[in-house]
Amino acid sequence: MMAFLFTIVGIFICNQTAHALKVKDPSAIVWDEISAFFLMLIIAHPLLNPLKIFELFVLFRIFDIWKPFPINYLDKHLRGGLGIMLDDYVAAFFALLIYFSIQ
């Protein structure tokens, strides 16, 4: 429930901030990364210890920075708060796929 709330609020605040700053995806917005990583922690929580949290973080950042398809497509073609949030959620999804496949 909290992750859903983070997502809905995030779409709104990311959209408002991007509009106010007149930038498609301002680097000052970090709610999208926080929200996506929070969701990852919720999904992976039974297996977590400090090392596993670090592994998840590294995997997430790799996908968030590298932006392979379809992340790069979403990043370029979706506008507003949904676009800002969704590319990070897809990066989190790919990171979780790798994380669970190596466990």
Summarize the model shown.
The protein is built from five helices and no strands. The chain is globular.
Describe this structure in words.
- By secondary structure, the chain is mostly helical.
- It has one domain (2-101).
- 78% of the residues lie in helices and 0% in strands.
- The protein is built from five helices and no strands.
- It has helices at residues 2-21, 31-44, 50-66, 71-77, 80-101.
- The chain starts with a helix and ends with a helix.
- The model has no long low-confidence stretch (mean pLDDT 92).
Q: Radius of gyration in whole Å, from Cα?
A: 14 Å
* Global structural class: mainly alpha
The number of distinct helices, counting runs of at least 4 residues, comes to 5
Q: Can you give the mean pLDDT?
A: 92
N→C terminal distance: 26 Å
Q: Which band does the percent of strand residues land in?
A: under 5%
Largest beta-sheet details: none
Pick out its properties.
103 residues, globular, 78% helix, 5 helices, mainly alpha
Helix/strand layout:
Layout: H1 2-21, H2 31-44, H3 50-66, H4 71-77, H5 80-101
